[in-house]
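Example (one chain per record):
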Amino acid sequence: MDAETRKLLDPRTIARAEALGMNARFIVEGYMAGEHKSPYRGFAIEFAQHREYSPGDDVRHLDWKVQAKTERYYIKQYEQETNFVAHLLLDGSESMKYASAEISKLEYGKMMAACLAYLILHQRDAVALGIFDEEVREYLPRSDNRDNLFKIMDRLAGFDPVGGTRIAPVLHGIANQVRRKGIVIVISDFFDDEEEVLEGIQHLRFNGHEVIVMQVLDPCEIDFPFSGMVEFEGLEDLPLIRTRPSQIRKSYHRAFEAFQEHLRAACERHKCHFVSLRTDQSLDEALANYLAFRKSTSG
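Predicted structure:
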């Protein structure tokens, strides 16, 4: 039995995946109840057209009659498939491990990705998952099969960060490889070269993808509430810094606010939806931002 199989069968990983899925379902269905109905118009499920099979397509939709006649594989495409494919990209780099309270940025990002995956599959659209640091470490190809949800939860629950951050190559890779226009949702703290990241976003937009940027931050990174003499331990091979926060608080706030505003303004320029998330913010609030955006773009 190889290491990957052992990991998938590990009872703790299975338990974490099940808990993640249950929490996502509770949050999504709780939010969607009552006045919060589906943000999409009604789905039709009639057959629409054939298209040639490509790796990652759900084999349940293969048309075997056409294959028998043509000796080529074609997928039956239904009306709901024409809505969208969402590519969830979660930053799994070491900087996402930071947590000033109980929940780290990575844990919050995992839960957000789980909620979005549940919502998208529940709406009968397709979702793909990528977890990256300097490159894509985990990938599940697009599928509209709801049974794929546990695989997504399993990959999310079992991932532990070890590497640095390089977002831009991941975005360029998606832009180059994914031909069908869809939605790319990037969940990250975006502690990386800003200009390179923005070039990656621009590449996706140029190729016709909608892009949603979800920046996940810890409240202490925003508020910088530290006092006294503090040692800041660097992540991703950054050095240890010993300083008095009171002496650098003003300059820190200026630099951090400029960083956030630059990202926000660039997203606006490229017609991307920017969502700023704090790990002390309830997930249903974060989900509301996503749903409001989808409602405004789905006609």
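Caption: Confidence is low (pLDDT under 50) at residues 1-9, 34-47.
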